[in-house]
């Protein structure tokens, strides 16, 4: 398979490597020439074989960067070709992008990608939306990117554009609530003066308990390196999916007290230095390489 990949940052660059390791020919474009294989979108599309559908995977920031990239690709691609949006786009954008591309006969698949900076080694969980016909054109890339040691990790969330990104949005909303629970528990354990070895308490939960998870593993790594997280400021960013999840809950009258509270707690951290948010910031840095704010 040949595929074009737009956006070679923390995740896109690792995805290029993982696909190449699986035998896929990847032509990557990034605005940073040090990362790119070619110097333009046009050159990337030209480098793809013309004897079959051209497939281009977009991994750029959500919103206008993704919309403008897809608009540019619309002018470069033709009937039977395919665009995959693998970024964190809001699910409502997908129907508009799919309809626009369809005007030229170009297919569209939206794909929520989870795995962060560890995806190169462990594989990525992929949640995609779109028709079976379009998905088949990119299936070799899906198979290369998903975890190789399990039948899970790749799911068709629905034929309607946006189904994949909606599933990824809910995934990230759940992530907010899980991180908040760990962070609040850490703050309480760290505060009382009669409990010792807090990092090892968390480490003991990694085996045999119902709260074990990869997020817990990442938090243990951070606490062992900086027991009281003194190097971090109690400030946590949000990248949008939590807000969209809460808005979707409102639109569908689904109660989400835990996820809503976790989102609002991040907003509080931007007004006052929040101790629990040090743990949130540490976990975000651990799984996604997200920037932290120094103390």
Automatic annotation (TrEMBL):
All copies of domain 6-phosphogluconate dehydrogenase C-terminal, residue ranges: 164-292
Keyword Oxidoreductase: yes
InterPro entries: 6-PGluconate_DH-like_C_sf, 6DGDH_YqeC, 6PGD_dom2, 6PGDH_C, 6PGDH_NADP-bd, NAD(P)-bd_dom_sf, Pgluconate_DH
Alphabetical UniProt keywords: Gluconate utilization, Oxidoreductase
Coiled coil start-end: none
NCBIfam families given in the database record: gnd_rel, PRK09599.1
Family statement drawn from the similarity comment of this UniProt entry: Belongs to the 6-phosphogluconate dehydrogenase family.
Protein name: Decarboxylating 6-phosphogluconate dehydrogenase
Organism: Nocardioides panacisoli
Gene behind the chain: gnd
């Amino acid at each position: 398979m040949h595929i074009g990949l737009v956006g070679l940052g923390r995740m896109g660059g690792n995805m290029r490597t993982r696909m190449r390791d699986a035998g896929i020919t990847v032509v990557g474009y990034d605005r940073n020439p040090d990362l790119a294989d070619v110097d333009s979108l046009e050159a990337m599309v030209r480098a793809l074989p013309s004897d079959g559908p051209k497939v281009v995977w977009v991994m750029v920031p959500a919103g206008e960067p993704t919309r403008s990239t897809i608009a540019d690709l619309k002018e470069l691609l033709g009937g039977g070709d395919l665009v995959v949006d693998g970024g964190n786009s809001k699910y409502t954008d997908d129907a508009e992008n799919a309809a626009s591309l369809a005007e030229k006969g170009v297919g569209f698949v939206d794909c929520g990608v989870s795995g962060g900076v560890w995806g190169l080694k462990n594989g990525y969980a992929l949640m995609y939306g779109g028709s079976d016909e379009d998905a088949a054109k990119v299936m070799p890339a899906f198979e290369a990117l998903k975890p190789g040691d399990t039948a899970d990790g790749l799911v068709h969330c629905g034929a309607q554009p946006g189904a994949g990104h909606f599933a990824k949005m809910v995934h990230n909303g759940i992530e907010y609530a899980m991180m908040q629970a760990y962070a609040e528990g850490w703050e309480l354990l760290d505060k009382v003066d009669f409990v010792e070895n807090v990092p090892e308490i968390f480490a003991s939960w990694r085996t045999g308990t119902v709260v074990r998870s990869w997020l817990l593993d990442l938090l243990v790594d951070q606490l062992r390196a900086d027991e009281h997280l003194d190097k971090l400021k109690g400030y946590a960013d949000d990248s949008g999916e939590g807000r969209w999840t809460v808005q979707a809950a409102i639109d569908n009258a689904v109660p989400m007290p835990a996820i809503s509270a976790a989102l609002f707690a991040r907003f509080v951290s931007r007004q006052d230095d929040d101790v629990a948010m040090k743990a949130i910031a540490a976990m975000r840095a651990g799984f996604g390489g997200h920037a932290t704010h120094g103390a």
